[in-house]
From TrEMBL:
Annotated InterPro entries: DEATH-like_dom_sf, DED_dom, P-loop_NTPase
Residues covered by region (Disordered): 1018-1041
Gene3D superfamilies per the UniProt record, alphabetical: Death Domain, Fas
Pfam families reported in the protein's UniProt record: DED
A biological process term (GO) from this entry: regulation of apoptotic process
Domain of life: Eukaryota
Record protein name field: DED domain-containing protein
């Protein structure tokens, strides 16, 4: 099957267009500014049209949205759908900004009306550039009459204090409040009811923000928990293309402290960015939404930072009171007035007027409750009087109960209008994230055998019913619809369920998420799908963490799987390594608890990793780790035997397979059909006979072992990434900065002890499980074994130790070559996933690492350079088929570096192309945080442009340096780029030799850079001497002659270096 999806899809579209479609598309293109009529005349077939759009840069592998829209306008929805599927599964997009935190994530209900409170709020924020919205205080029924008087006396003292403009609170007031708290007069935080209109007022203002311009940023920060604040800010710094911060002095075990430190630093970075040149003239709006603890130091510090930013407007919403220092910015919302409620219901006669007033009074003038009532009366045709009586019958004599009853009535109306499938979807909604429910997720919950048309009808019916009853809003329309539901509605829906219903529905969703979230995220399609499920998986996991019920053993196993899936997604999501680490630890500890293993076994001290002369000890770790691994393996294997056959069957048949695995399965199973990317139950027997599926007994035994390997292997990589993401570039010591920047463009970074220990555990478990398969199922091998062992080799060669053993590197090469030559089927969770063909992910990754080993060995033997070149050319030929891989940018970098080492003009040109492609993919993907790892693509590209310069190359290098400098936003790091930019400008003006640029680029001491990643710094004085001779003879050489002479000198110098190296080897 052809993996180059773009070519395949465009061919299908071209073949599918008839003459009428082509005429229609030509008509739509007639007004495009860069398309001329004479060009359209020559378009007769679909292929002509696609070629024209590609020439005009209106269509490319990464630019297909406009073409998809054109096909829709022409009425070819079928062809448009093909392009959409390609776009959703193959394109590297910025996953960190999926319209959740931006303006599209702030929906306003259709029947929202401006109230006097909104106008007061608007006046407040327009005058003060800030407004902190709080709701009406609850009635204090928990206070007896005496304590209630004390409470209001306290409030009176605070009011007097404000009137006197005293900067310090009255000591009497504070003492009284403290006494009341101690003796139980204040039992809960001062808070208000749901539905008073806080969030809707904020969203309405954001959508009509008067200071908005093209450069304005409007962003919502979830403030319910510390983790949500962290994730919101992570997405924000990614959107702003800023360096994300992780403080190295805070250990991974101090999660709360680390989160707080990261939040503080990210807020400062955002503040600097919004003040910087280019967007400082624009006004921005930050919404701190749903603050649960307004007195929290992290929140107050973040609030002050945003308030201190002159061009930033700030809105905060909370159900609790704000600290006294912000009292001048606070505004209280109580709901509608009686007059506004009358206008809202559009009353025309006096009889209904009194009924509306009574209804509004019973519903406490809460906009949310009134909207439920209005929708119910409009949809059912019943009278206001009937609705008032129904409230009276349910004894709705307080605000909360009135609101609850109104919501329950609306939900009952919705249920009556839905089919059984629609009711099932409605039942699952309260387990999901309320503000971000994509329609594709709801579709995935419908039966597999239901056609797309029927699924669309069911979803449309559900959305219409929810919107008509004021229970939901639609954030966006068209292909990407997202439903938002008020959190209070979720609580009401959950409270209407019995405990048995909650258990059944939660377990069903748990299985659904486990089957749909990929643990292998090597393909872009997997990452994108995981991201769309992420928020909802978190909501479900909270339910299992908070509930008192004890899940069954198999449900516990699935919780471990889901925890791992969430962690893996966070690892690749962008700026969320801390969240990934949190869930990896949860997953690991949950499995340890399941099999009664002490999690302290993983706290093993590692010493002298790179000093060892035996690569196998480096891979497998010390004797203690190996012994602990055997003990853990036996317990996991034993516990796995208690899993049922039905559990394994469900996992095998319901797990979603990525397209790479499906293509392989289609090939090796003689065309067995796979519906909805899943294995059909009726084909299990045949697959068992053909050795595509592992026998159930072995699958059960190995399940927990393989899950633990996944957790430890990915956690190890994440911990290393946390180290790579450390923001060390603010060090004031210039010498220290130079050393860090030298390492920045290389792979030289030793793994942390924790990451190495986890990797060694995963390797030992993988080897034990592989031997188990070898003994019981000789036809199968564990693919994770190759990946884990390769990870240890990568850790070894990328360590900072310059005295790496040549023997160890040669042993590593032997291991990698053996893996590449293997002809065994590799499995994952009981199903064959791949073999050793050249396009397989594991095999390509082996070749990539082999190239690095060959380059290191070329210090001793130059023949290894040719071996590296052969592998690079091999990988280059595979690129069209690997385009949808997540690691493609790294593959481009590795190929480019090998090509650059060849030092010939054709290879240099190709190296630049690969560096450019790696930079482009990193820029377009979610990996836009500028860690040491991700900056490698940018810096090596800049180096290459300068070392082998043309005017175009230098201009590109200047652009990239400016981009990096802007993102770091620190004076200390600005200095690293100023020298390079200054010399690039000089080079552009004079087009002198690039030697001085090479020496000054980022003030890096290149002697500290590993041979595996440094570029050749070739002396150019000989070329200068030739230029002098030509000048003395009166001959003025052309640019081409100088470039040719320069290239010849480089080749000669390279040959001299090789000869010198060979002489040194002979003398050893």
């Amino acid at each position: 099957m052809d993996f180059d999806c773009y070519i395949k899809v465009m061919k299908e579209v071209a073949d599918g267009l008839d003459d009428g479609n082509i005429r229609g598309l030509k008509f739509l293109l007639r007004d495009k500014p860069n398309i001329y009529q004479k060009e359209l005349v020559n378009v007769n077939e679909g292929s002509d049209l696609i070629q024209l759009l590609e020439r005009k840069e209106l269509l490319s592998r990464t630019k297909v949205l406009e073409f998809m829209n054109l096909l829709q306008l022409e009425g070819r929805i079928d062809l448009s759908k093909k392009v959409q599927i390609y776009m959703e599964t193959n394109l590297p997009v910025n996953l960190s900004n999926h319209d959740y935190y931006g303006i599209n994530g702030m929906p306003v209900v259709e029947n929202y009306i401006e109230t006097d409170e909104y106008r007061l709020f608007e006046k407040k924020i327009n005058s003060c550039k800030a407004a902190l919205i709080k709701g009406t205080l609850k009635e204090y029924r928990d206070l007896d009459k005496y304590k209630l008087k004390l409470f209001f006396f306290h409030r009176l003292l605070m009011l007097i204090n404000r009137m006197l403009n005293n900067s310090q609170p009255l000591s009497a007031s504070r003492a009284l409040y403290s006494w009341m708290y101690t003796y139980g007069a204040v039992k809960i935080k001062i808070s208000c009811h749901h539905g008073s209109g806080k969030t809707q007022h904020a969203y309405s203002y954001a959508r009509r923000f008067p200071g908005k311009s093209e450069k304005s940023l409007i962003w919502r920060i979830d403030c319910k928990t510390l983790s949500q604040i962290y994730r919101s800010l992570s997405a924000m710094v990614a959107y702003l293309k800023l360096q994300c911060i992780f403080l190295d002095h805070v250990t991974c075990t101090q999660s709360d402290r680390q989160l707080r430190a990261s939040i503080d630093e990210m807020t400062k970075r955002i503040q600097q960015k919004l003040r910087c040149e280019g967007i400082n003239n624009a006004n921005h709006l930050v919404l701190l939404d749903g603050v649960e603890d307004t007195s929290d130091d992290t929140f107050t510090k973040m609030l002050k930072d945003f308030l201190d930013t002159e061009n930033v407007y700030v809105i905060a919403t909370s159900r609790v009171t704000y600290p006294d220092e912000f009292h001048n910015l606070c505004i209280e919302v109580t709901g509608m007035t009686e007059e506004e409620a009358v206008l809202y219901f559009k009353v025309v006669n006096n009889d209904e007027l009194e009924q509306v007033k009574e209804l509004a009074r019973q519903l406490s003038y809460l906009p949310l409750a009134l909207s439920f009532a209005f929708a119910f009366i409009a949809n059912t045709g019943s009278s206001i009087e009937t609705y008032v009586k129904s409230l009276a019958e349910t004894e709705a004599n307080d605000q909360l109960r009135s609101l609850t009853v109104s919501c329950e009535v609306a939900l009952e109306i919705v249920k009556k209008d839905l089919t059984e499938h629609g009711k099932n979807l409605l039942a699952y909604i309260p387990y999901l994230h309320p503000e971000n429910i994509p329609d594709f997720l709801l579709k995935s919950l419908l039966p597999v055998n239901m056609t797309e048309d029927f699924k669309e009808r069911e979803i449309n019916k559900l959305i219409v019913c929810l919107r008509n009853n004021s229970l939901a809003t639609l954030k966006s329309r068209g292909n990407n619809r997202v439903i938002a539901v008020h959190r209070f509605t979720f609580r009401v829906m959950m409270n209407m369920k019995t405990e048995k219903e909650k258990t059944i529905e939660a377990n069903a969703l748990l299985r659904h998420f486990c089957h749909n979230i990929y643990l292998d995220t090597s393909l872009i399609e997997a990452v994108k799908k995981n991201v769309m499920f992420l928020d909802h998986a978190l909501e479900l996991l909270k339910l299992y963490e908070n509930c008192n019920r004890r899940p069954e053993m198999e449900d516990k196993v699935l919780c471990c799987v889901l925890l791992c899936g969430v962690a893996v997604t966070y690892r690749l999501y962008g700026n969320t390594e801390l969240s990934a680490n949190e869930y990896f630890v949860k997953a690991r500890d949950a499995v340890c608890e399941l099999v009664s293993v002490n999690k302290a076994d993983f706290a093993v001290t590692v010493c002298g990793f790179t000093a060892m002369n035996d690569i196998h000890i480096s891979i497998n770790g010390c004797e203690l780790i190996r012994e602990n691994s055997k003990n853990l393996f036996e317990k996991l294997l034993h516990k796995g035997k208690s899993l049922s056959d039905s559990f394994i069957l469900t996992v095998i048949t319901n797990t979603m397979r990525n397209k790479e695995q499906l293509c392989y399965l289609l090939e090796v199973t003689n065309g067995i059909s796979y519906t909805n990317n899943q294995i059909a139950t009726d084909s299990i027997e045949e697959l068992l006979e053909n050795q595509i599926i592992v026998p159930f007994q072995e699958s059960k035994e190995s399940f927990l072992v393989e899950l633990m390997i996944h957790i430890l292997y990915n956690s190890s990589k994440n911990k290393r990434l946390m180290k790579l993401a450390t923001d060390d570039f603010t060090k004031q010591n210039p010498e220290r900065r130079n050393h860090l920047m030298a390492r920045l463009s290389s792979d030289n970074l030793c793994p942390t002890d924790e990451s190495l220990v986890e990797l060694q555990y995963s390797i030992n478990l993988a080897e034990l499980l592989d031997n188990h398969y070898k003994h019981n199922c000789p036809a199968f091998r564990l693919g994770l074994k190759i990946a884990a062992r390769r990870g240890a080799i990568l850790y070894y060669i990328s360590s900072q130790d310059s005295n790496k053993s040549i023997k160890c590197i040669k042993d590593a090469v032997k291991i990698l070559e053996e893996n590449s030559e293997s002809n065994i089927r590799f499995i994952e969770f009981g199903v064959v996933k791949h073999d050793s063909r050249s396009t397989n992910y594991q095999m390509v990754s082996n070749k990539k690492l082999l190239m690095e080993c060959y380059i290191m060995l070329s210090k001793e033997d130059t023949t290894y350079v040719k071996k590296a070149l052969t592998l690079a050319q091999d990988l280059e030929s595979l690129i069209p088929r690997l385009y949808h891989w997540k690691v493609m940018s790294d593959i481009h970098i590795k190929i480019a570096h090998v090509f650059e080492l060849q030092n010939t003009e054709p290879f240099i040109t190709k190296a630049k192309q690969h560096y450019k492609e790696a930079y482009r993919r990193e820029y377009e993907s979610n990996n836009i945080r500028l860690t040491r790892y991700h900056l490698r693509a940018l810096l090596q590209y800049v180096n290459c442009c300068i070392n082998h310069s043309t005017k175009e190359d230098l201009e590109m290098a200047k652009t990239i340096c400016n981009d990096i400098k802007e993102r770091f936003q620190h004076k200390s790091t600005d200095e690293m780029f100023d020298a390079a930019l200054e010399t690039i400008d000089k080079q552009l003006n004079e087009m002198t030799t690039p030697k001085e640029i090479i020496n000054s680029l980022l003030t890096v001491n290149c002697s500290g850079v590993d041979i595996g990643t440094q570029t050749d710094n070739v002396s150019t004085h000989t070329s200068s001497e030739g230029h002098v001779r030509n000048s003395q003879s009166g001959i003025s050489p052309t640019k081409k002659e100088l470039q040719r002479r320069k290239l010849q000198l480089k080749i000669e110098l390279n040959e001299i270096d090789n000869e010198l190296m060979q002489l040194e080897l002979n003398n050893m």
